[in-house]
Amino acid sequence: MPRFSIIVPSHGVAGRLGQALDSVLAQSFGDFELIPVCDAAGSPAAGVADGHAERDSRVAPVHAPPSQGLAGARNAGVRAATGTYLLFLDGDDVLVPGALAALDARLAETGPVDVLPCEHERVPWWEGETTRPVAPLLESAPSGAFAPARAPHLTGVRLPAWSAAWRRAFVTEHELAFPPGYFTDVGWCGRALLRAERMAVSRRVLVRHRARRQGDRLRLPGPHHADLLDQAERVLQEAAALGLPSERSGPLFEQLFAAVLKTAAHPRRLPSGRREFFRRASALYRRHRPAGYRPPGGSLGVQHRLLAAGSYEAFAAVRDTRRAAGRAAAALPRPRGLRTRLHYGLQLRRPLDPDLVVYCAYWGRGYACNPAAIHARARALAPHLRGVFLVEADQAHTVPDDVEYAVLGSRRAWELLARATYLVNNANFAEGVVKRPGSVHLQTQHGTPLKTMGVDQSTYPVVAAATGSFTKLLGRVDRWDYNLSSNPHSTRVWERAFPGSYEHLEYGYPRNDVYVTAGADDVARVRAELGVPEGARAVLYAPTHRDHRTGFEPGLDLEAFCEAAGEDVVVLLRAHYFYDRGGPGGGGRTGRVIDVSAHRSSEDVCLAADALVTDYSSIMFDYANLDRPIVVHADDWEVYRETRGVCFDLMAAPPGRVTRTPQELARVFRDGSYADEESAALRAAFRERFCPFDDGRAAERVVRRVLLGEPPEALPPVIPLAERVPAPAAVPLVRS
After folding, report:
1. Which of 31, 80, 402, 637 could crosslink 3 through cysteines, CB 3.0-4.6 Å?
2. What gap in Å lies between CA 599 and CA 687, rounded to an integer?
3. Euclidean distance between CA atoms 608 and 630, whole angstroms
4. Residue 485, Cα to own-chain centre: how many angstroms?
5. Which is nearest to 623 in space by CA: 510, 537, 726?
6. C-alpha R_g of the chain
7. pLDDT digits over 211-255, tens only?
């Protein structure tokens, strides 16, 4: 029998689940079983849990359907547990180092106890001060083991279930289970503390609780707040059945109704049904108020008295007066220039235009990427919609003649942003853009992540300094309604890097549709436009940006590579978009090197290339859809991994050959191993993992779901990878 059974529900937190499980497996105290509770086999979280189970026999995943909620997941974990003590850990939190050793030592001091509350740290994912919310509750508790009557303020109402150890035999004896619905911790902890006979506390931190950017889901608006009254009633009924003495029933009653009044006093939590919530709470208050109970003083005492009297109108008046007195005037959005700012403010008062879609890509760098592909498909599927692209003034030449555009920062652009019902971007709109009720923001992203993104960058100083305020970044994330994902890996990373309440759309990237829909004529046309000689092997060299460098450095002597790789080799050089020159076409040709950095379409450049050489650029994930050879030139992998951080080990699962020196790189092209069977096998595994949805119909799925409002079940199904026919390469894979 293990000392601890650690139960980890995982619904909706697949992106962080691996870190939670790793924090347990890294503990110095190893006598435990780890029970991840996943939605179902094949779900993203199940994939993470199964991977950990393969590496460590102490990991034993179980399944619970999402319909059973958090309570069902925890109860499933409890049924599977065999340990002496139960611990609960949310899938987006972590155990602090040394937590289990400290907990075991504390239990050795106290002897067997039914419940052992512990401290925890509340840590923002982005910026802010760490707090220890339950420290005031625990600091006045007796130092050893004690009966609950000696610490009546420890009612369990303010204690998260994951901030304590629970003796499994005690749980089984009293048939304790997490009650269904929201606020299940109130029902579990409140009832458990009523039944406990012997307890102790630990002032050591057990869990690092990573607060969500939008706050606890229990504080978000919705009808689920009625569940708080259900949970409170369960606890109060059990307390009455047990004949709880007044010295314990008073603190329990007061803490429960402090939570109830906090909800009643926040109208945003209850968009509707406020009067009914108050009526139910008032009846519950009167029915269970302990004999001789005296309400607290101050404004909270006033709320108690109004609740007891059932005076909703007076309560609402007091609530609204207090909120009005404390509400600061919202700052007007900050477009540049007073007149433009005032103009935007006025436009926000006008109704949304139901047929207006505003697009932007790469912070206004032109008509490109996923937004351009969605715009083009929307013209065919939703011709009633008016699409306008926002671009910087010096990029207006990149917009096709038949596409309407506006210059970023202009009065017209701000007017469009104020009136648009749909806003589509592959980066982020300016901070001053207001998310209006009824508007729909679609974040399309612009690549599959290999490097760290969003708040995951906070631990890498060079990157964090360039990123700026994570609070502002996540304020922009708060505007997203939908976030586009090209594969399950991306979904997990976005969930972790950009915590928000948006919906993931695993539809593939619209910009990659062309890799399936283009034909040989399209490939020949693009090669002719770029100046690729007929019959040449065109090798696309696309290195990524280095945060620790300034300016673009090719990293290779490309002319020397061409000479060493073969007489038929030409290189298409594409610098990261941070370094493009903004011209209308390519950057010219030097010998056998054709600079295509300024070409507006990376998709065209990929179609023209017979093979790709990159280091760590996300272009490899897009190019893999063409099923053409890829070589990873990783001459500084260790440096990049340490300075930028990565989401997975590229060296362990590359899309093809990996080279470390210019000589190795030239050799794999010279001897043909860049395109041999081993390279093809690596590429096939890579495609299976990262190209599951890019079937040529991603843009259609996005338009139908987001712009036309069609239900998910009506969208075109994904064509299996084995049935897709990518655009053909221009030359055979291997030359003698």
Report:
1. 31
2. 26
3. 14
4. 11
5. 726
6. 30
7. 765 556 676 788 889 999 999 999 999 999 999 999 999 999 999
180, 226 in Cβ contact below 8 A?
Answer: no
Kindly report, residue by residue over 112-169, the tens digit of the pLDDT. 999 999 999 988 755 566 788 898 889 889 999 999 999 999 999 999 999 999 999 9
DSSP H helical segments within 566-625, as ranges? 602-608, 619-623
Longest dimension (CA), the chain: 97
For 179-272, strand residue ranges (E) read: 202-211
Number of H helices, E strands in the chain: 27, 22
Token couple for 720: 């299996």
Q: Locate tokens 């420890």: which residue?
A: 154
- The helix or strand, by DSSP H or E, that contains position 593, with its residue range, turns out to be strand 593-595
Contact in structure between 119 and 138 (CB atoms under 8 Å): yes
Q: Are strands 115-124 and 588-590 parallel, antiparallel or unpaired?
A: unpaired
Count of C-beta atoms within a 10 Å radius of residue 45: 26
The C-alpha atoms of residue 212 and residue 124 are separated, in whole angstroms, by 7
Q: How far apart are CA 588 and CA 534, in angstroms?
A: 18
Q: Is residue 428 a contact partner of residue 392, using CB atoms and an 8 Å limit?
A: no
pLDDT in tens, 658-678: 999 999 999 999 999 999 999
Q: Which residues, in sequence order, are CB contacts of 328 under 8 Å at separation 6+?
A: none
The confidence band for 318, taking pLDDT boundaries of 50, 70 and 90, is: confident
CA 579/CA 55 separation, integer angstroms: 42
Q: By the 8 A CB rule, do 25 and 52 touch?
A: yes
Distance CA 675, CA 666 (A): 13
